[in-house]
Amino acid sequence: MLRDSLYSYQLLNPDDRLFVGLQNYAELLTNPDTLQSFGVTFGFAAGTIAVVIPLSFLLAVYLNGRLPMRAVVRTVVFLPVVTSAVVIATMWTFLLDPANGLINGALSGLGLPRLAFLTSKSQALPSVVLVTVWQQLGFATVLFLSGLQGIPNELEDAARVDGASALQRLRHVVLPLMGRTTLFVVVIMTVFALQSFAPSLIMTSGGPEGTTNFVVYNIYQTAFSLQQPGMASAISAVFMFIVLGISLVQMGLLRTKWNY
Amino acid sequence: MIKSVLLCASLLMLAGGSARAAERGSPTPACPQGVLTLRLLRSINNPPQPDVVAAWEAANPCVKIEVNEVPFGQLADKISVLAASGNPPDILGYDGPNTASYAAAGVLLPLDPFLPAGFKDDVTQASLTEHSYLGKLYSPGTQQTTLAMFYNATLLDKLDIHPPRDLKSGWTWAQALEAIKKCQQGDGDDVAIWGLAPSHFGTGQPGFVYRDLLFQRSAGDPKAPPDSSAYKTYFAISPDGKTADGWLNTPEAIAGATFYRDLFNVAKVTPKAGIPTAFQDGHACFTLDTSYFMAGLIKNDPGFKWGVTPLPYIRSPIVHTGSVTLGVSSKTKYPAEAAKFVIDVSTGTPAEAYAHRARILPVLKSVGGKMPELNEYPLSIFYAELTAWGQPRPPSPHFAQYDKVVSDALRDIAYGADPKTRLDAAVRTLQPILSR
Q1: Rounded mean pLDDT of B125-150?
Q2: Three-state SS string across B158-225, please?
Q3: What is the bridge-based pairing of β-strands B36-43 and B63-70?
Q4: In B, which residues are within 8 Å of A4 by CB distance?
Q5: Do B436 and A116 make contact, defined as CB atoms within 8 angstroms?
Q6: Are residues B137 and B103 in contact, defined by beta-carbon separation less than 8 angstroms?
Q7: Mean pLDDT score of chain B, rounded to an integer?
Q8: Half-sphere exposure in the Cβ direction for B321 (13 Å, CA)
Q9: B213 pLDDT band (50/70/90 cuts)?
């Protein structure tokens, strides 16, 4: 990949290649479309994580308790995880259709205006975030649940004996001990979000106006549709190092101070 | 990463058995050299049809055709991967406007040595231009298409609207829009019958170059001085296929694109997304489609009267030509056999039978001469358009890239983007690619 990024050639004729040195990298850094795709991808990842992490933690707390309907909720939440990303993207494309989609039908039934979820510049990215949250929530919940079930009961019991309320036990006992799990979930969710491809391909084709043009989709389009595999390799290389850097920063910031 | 993708794709193809080289079987009394198996890649529902392949195999018992299919939307990407693999299929069914791209990249084999004498004289000019590169012919062509405007005559009769049935009195888009507005039932969120059906070409989103670039090209003028912006708007790319700046983003092109955007966002007579069968289901008054669509309406009666009128235009009438076609891979080990198949199924009886059955426009004049229906309404509209208004999609050795970038721009314009800003951005992306 690094070697390919130093050449200019077409995928149709890979033998006819020209060594261009770092030219692909220079063009990448000045190409507004590529820079936009990086911005969109990191915004998408931040949005997804900001919603998935707290929501999945709360769900895990709920599922870890002795409340009713736990098995049903667990199944419903986890089902999208084992469903193909392509199937999910296709299904949500139908659900979000402005004319015939179920969601717009419901809005219309309530007397609210129909929304252009996937064709509006301001709504497309939030819509894709919503779909991704729906898909990834179950996986993050299961990870948090396993973390919660690994906390020794004695620690919570001791806090209870000391008079700590449920909220206090959650804040001062459970949350600090969930550090390792949280780190793992954040890193995994970040990687999943940065790898996102199916929503761009199936739901929006990267539009409107590049607002859902995720980096991986951009790499695919640059290599196959625009026939610039050298440039696509350069974007891949830069993206790989950025993702590596983000993961290292996350691991540094979220390093656990507690163990059990 | 690209290599990984290619490796995975290659492994998948190997698993599917489609990446095997053409091979000969053991000799038999009837085939002393063994039965040769040629591999063919085509898009689903496109020629050559299974009965045509079977008939050719029966007439050529020492050659078998192994067919692999992909959806049309994945065809170009599949060919890119296969071409890079070094072991592409022997015969490629591909989209005709990509001929120059594939020829320039050495993917296709020139067919000139295999063609019968005088063959090029029999090919219609639009097809000859589209399937040639640097004076060599790379495909005989299997069919031609143009767009016309279908209308629901049952609905229009009630409104006393009678669209023209000949090119001479064809509507401008301003006239067509009046009829479209009158026919639409409902507005805002509550539309029962749309004025103009959504596109079902490509991904089903707006912006497909074959259909939607015509709005801005028709705002140009081929009779204007060659250095004028009106002339350049009509052709949408320089003659050498290497310049889009000043051709794709002229004031006339922006005006045409603005009209196109307003259909979705101001007049609101066509949806940004919608049912691909809106016209057939009676939920749209008009739709833009090919003669192939007519065959579907004849076969499956929609339950209402329908008609065809020439494609409207802004300043100059124009329709895009071009369709899927067949070529031979430059890497095949059996060029003569592969070329024979391609030429046989694209000419003579198979071509005539396919043209009659599918209601497509023939590539060969000799086939056209045997189709009296070409001069009968409604097929006459398409045939007249092909000969009088037909233009290839902007020819370039980088057409695939042009197609992708312009489609994305037109889709965004349909969704409400500023036409000038978006066309300028498309040119900015495209120009370095075209210049290479």
Answers
A1: 91
A2: HCCCCCCCCCCCCCEHHHHHHHHHHHCEEECCEEEEEEECCCCCCCCCCCCHHHHHHHHHCCCCCCCC
A3: parallel
A4: 2-3
A5: no
A6: no
A7: 89
A8: 28
A9: very high
Type of residue at B415: Y
| 8 Å CB contact between A136 and A52 | yes
- Quick count: other Cβ atoms within 10 Å of Cβ A71? 9
Whole-angstrom CA distances from A153 to A119, A150, A157 are 50, 9, 6
Q: CB atoms < 10 A from the CB of A199, how many?
A: 28
Instruction: Give me the pLDDT at residue A180, please.
Output: 85
Residues of B with CB under 8 A from a CB of A: 1-5, 76-77, 79-81, 83-84, 101-102, 105-107, 189, 191, 203, 205, 271-275, 398, 400-401, 404-405, 408, 411-412, 415-417, 422, 425, 428-429, 432-433, 436
Domain B148-321+395-435 in CATH 1.10.560.10: no
Nearest-angstrom CA–CA distance, B230 and B366: 36
Sequential DSSP letters for A181-226: HHHHHHHHHHHHHHT--HIIIIIITT-STTTT--HHHHHHIIIIIS
Q: How far apart are CA B199 and CA B265, in angstroms?
A: 16
Fold of B2-138+324-359: D-Maltodextrin-Binding Protein; domain 2 (3.40.190)
Q: What is the dihedral of CA A142, A145, A150, A154, to 10 degrees?
A: -170
Beta carbons of B343 and B124 less than 8 angstroms apart = no
Domain A4-253 sits in which CATH superfamily? MetI-like (1.10.3720.10)
Which regions of chain B carry the CATH code 3.40.190.10?
2-138+324-359, 148-321+395-435
Query: Cα distance from B292 to chain A (closest Cα, Å)?
Result: 26
Specify the DSSP element, H or E, that contains B17.
none
Instruction: Return the pLDDT at A257.
Output: 62
Does B80 sit within 8 Å of A232, measured CB to CB?
Answer: no
- Which residue in the set B77, B105, B273 is minimally distant from A224, CB to CB? B77
Helices (H), B192-334: 209-217, 229-235, 251-265, 291-299
pLDDT for the residue B13: 45
Complex ipTM above 0.85?
Answer: no
Mutate to test the interface with B, among A93, A103, A209, A215 (most CBs of B within 10 A): A209
- Do the beta carbons of residue B237 and residue B393 sit within 8 Å? no
